[in-house]
Amino acid sequence: MVKGVIDQVVKRNPGEPEFHQAVKEVLESVAPVLEKHPEYKEAKILDRLVEPERQIIFRVPWQDDKGEFRVNRGFRIEFNSAIGPYKGGLRFHPSVYIGIIKFLGFEQIFKNSLTTLPMGGGKGGSDFDPKGKSDSEVMRFCQSFMAELCKYIGPDTDVPAGDIGVGGREIGYMYGMYKKIRNEFTGVLTGKGLDWGGSLVRTEATGYGLIYFLLEMLKDLGKSIKGATVVSSGSGNVSIYAAQKCQELGAKVVAMSDSNGYIYDKDGIDLKAVKQLKEVERKRLKEYLKHKPNAKYEDGCNNIWSIKCDIALPNATQNEIDEKSAAKLVENGVWAVAEGANMPSTPEAIQFFLKNKVCFGPAKAANAGGVATSGLEMTQNSQRLSWTFEEVDAYLNRIMKSIYKQSKEAAEEYGQPGNLVVGANIAGFSKVARSMLAQGLV
Ligand code: NDP
Ligand code: 2IT
């Protein structure tokens, strides 16, 4: 049954290995749920779940600073709206193609379900590369992107946000264009600026949420984060704020990376310097050496996982930890891995961690704090109110605890105690499946 659906997905979506990978993991995890619930089989819940409700692909023409015309491709996948409006980020990166957006949109369905908030799953983006572009080029691109996207989204329909390559600056330019065309000031995007409808904590949320989830894992493991050595890959939004929370709690973050290479600073990373480089100056991480000449820089990203650490936080991109890297981490005594990026560990790496009893927090549970806080931004926009930092942070913490509890209990219920991969998939899926069943064949 499950195998048949997976085979169909591979056949009908050729050349999209990331999407196949995401589907396979979820479907294999939920197979026992279908045995318990024959009504899901009869209603063809899985067959419907793997087919996006709507896929939008569009041309994004824009002009560079030299006056030359450029063309990129834009995507929005409205994957599943069983439990709420489509919700999920936009990724701007040259590697973006339909298979990446589908994998991210598919994951988003279950992640959003786990948050306890009413949000369906969606994702979008473009193969546009913001790197090396001027502010005005980024603005013109964002405006052109939104001139088309605005036809499909809305505060009760589909609410995009950021992801790789899309932060506060891009959300600002896109929001401005949406408002101009639609003539409405609504919560159609999240991750907005604090002066115009954004939520406190949204910037920090994915990283902070990741560590709140990690703390729950460590409680059961009987370990403390205080004094632990941490490696956090990436040096973007997720990695920076995960590292910040780790440092606040007394851990030592010794390594971070960007797509060119990684830095190792045995004294602990100076986050102020990383923020200045990546958030303000938009420079390469290599330049960290100018701030801390005693740190080390190495070209290439993979070797970051050969650094000895207690806790590994893959916070950059998909499939960044393969089996070889997992083996190296285990050999060096890692005791916990929590995924801030989406699908950063290959299936073989995950199996390796589980086999070797490494406490493993899967992405769709561990990194759900970002979208959860986006959900809280939507709530505040609907109320036309802004909550304090402490209020949002406390809510985020409660949500991450709930996600951990749901994942842990589902794993136990289905006879796989401690396997949060299976637990998160089952818990996220169950709510969506029940809702799809209740809403009939749509
Ligand atoms: P950012 O664009 O802020 O940062 C991405 C970081 O990862 C950068 O350091 C970047 O390096 C590095 N990176 C990107 N692509 C690659 C690659 N192909 N190989 C190696 N390194 C790479 O993005 P975020 O921090 O927001 O996103 C990081 C991950 O977290 C993604 O998987 C995203 O989907 C996920 N995520 C993000 C959430 C959010 O709220 N932002 C929520 C949940 C998950 P460089 O600077 O060289 O490009
Ligand atoms: O992968 C993700 O969950 C995000 N990029 C955040 C999505 C959101 O809508 O805040």
TrEMBL record:
<feature type="binding site">
    <location>
        <position position="237"/>
    </location>
    <ligand>
        <name>NAD(+)</name>
    </ligand>
</feature>
<keyword id="KW-0560">Oxidoreductase</keyword>
<dbReference type="Pfam" id="PF00208">
    <property type="entry name" value="ELFV_dehydrog"/>
</dbReference>
<feature type="binding site">
    <location>
        <position position="111"/>
    </location>
    <ligand>
        <name>substrate</name>
    </ligand>
</feature>
<dbReference type="InterPro" id="IPR006096">
    <property type="entry name" value="Glu/Leu/Phe/Val/Trp_DH_C"/>
</dbReference>
<feature type="binding site">
    <location>
        <position position="87"/>
    </location>
    <ligand>
        <name>substrate</name>
    </ligand>
</feature>
<dbReference type="InterPro" id="IPR046346">
    <property type="entry name" value="Aminoacid_DH-like_N_sf"/>
</dbReference>
<dbReference type="InterPro" id="IPR014362">
    <property type="entry name" value="Glu_DH"/>
</dbReference>
<protein>
    <recommendedName>
        <fullName>Glutamate dehydrogenase</fullName>
    </recommendedName>
</protein>
<feature type="binding site">
    <location>
        <position position="374"/>
    </location>
    <ligand>
        <name>substrate</name>
    </ligand>
</feature>
<comment type="similarity">
    <text>Belongs to the Glu/Leu/Phe/Val dehydrogenases family.</text>
</comment>
<dbReference type="GO" id="GO:0004354">
    <property type="term" value="F:glutamate dehydrogenase (NADP+) activity"/>
</dbReference>
<dbReference type="GO" id="GO:0006537">
    <property type="term" value="P:glutamate biosynthetic process"/>
</dbReference>
<dbReference type="InterPro" id="IPR050724">
    <property type="entry name" value="Glu_Leu_Phe_Val_DH"/>
</dbReference>
<dbReference type="GO" id="GO:0005829">
    <property type="term" value="C:cytosol"/>
</dbReference>
<dbReference type="GO" id="GO:0000166">
    <property type="term" value="F:nucleotide binding"/>
</dbReference>
<feature type="binding site">
    <location>
        <position position="108"/>
    </location>
    <ligand>
        <name>substrate</name>
    </ligand>
</feature>
<dbReference type="Pfam" id="PF02812">
    <property type="entry name" value="ELFV_dehydrog_N"/>
</dbReference>
<feature type="site" description="Important for catalysis">
    <location>
        <position position="163"/>
    </location>
</feature>
<dbReference type="InterPro" id="IPR036291">
    <property type="entry name" value="NAD(P)-bd_dom_sf"/>
</dbReference>
<comment type="subunit">
    <text>Homohexamer.</text>
</comment>
<dbReference type="InterPro" id="IPR006095">
    <property type="entry name" value="Glu/Leu/Phe/Val/Trp_DH"/>
</dbReference>
<feature type="active site" description="Proton donor">
    <location>
        <position position="123"/>
    </location>
</feature>
<dbReference type="InterPro" id="IPR006097">
    <property type="entry name" value="Glu/Leu/Phe/Val/Trp_DH_dimer"/>
</dbReference>
<feature type="domain" description="Glutamate/phenylalanine/leucine/valine/L-tryptophan dehydrogenase C-terminal">
    <location>
        <begin position="199"/>
        <end position="440"/>
    </location>
</feature>
<dbReference type="InterPro" id="IPR033922">
    <property type="entry name" value="NAD_bind_Glu_DH"/>
</dbReference>
<keyword id="KW-0547">Nucleotide-binding</keyword>
<feature type="binding site">
    <location>
        <position position="206"/>
    </location>
    <ligand>
        <name>NAD(+)</name>
    </ligand>
</feature>
<dbReference type="InterPro" id="IPR033524">
    <property type="entry name" value="Glu/Leu/Phe/Val_DH_AS"/>
</dbReference>
<keyword id="KW-0520">NAD</keyword>
<feature type="binding site">
    <location>
        <position position="162"/>
    </location>
    <ligand>
        <name>substrate</name>
    </ligand>
</feature>
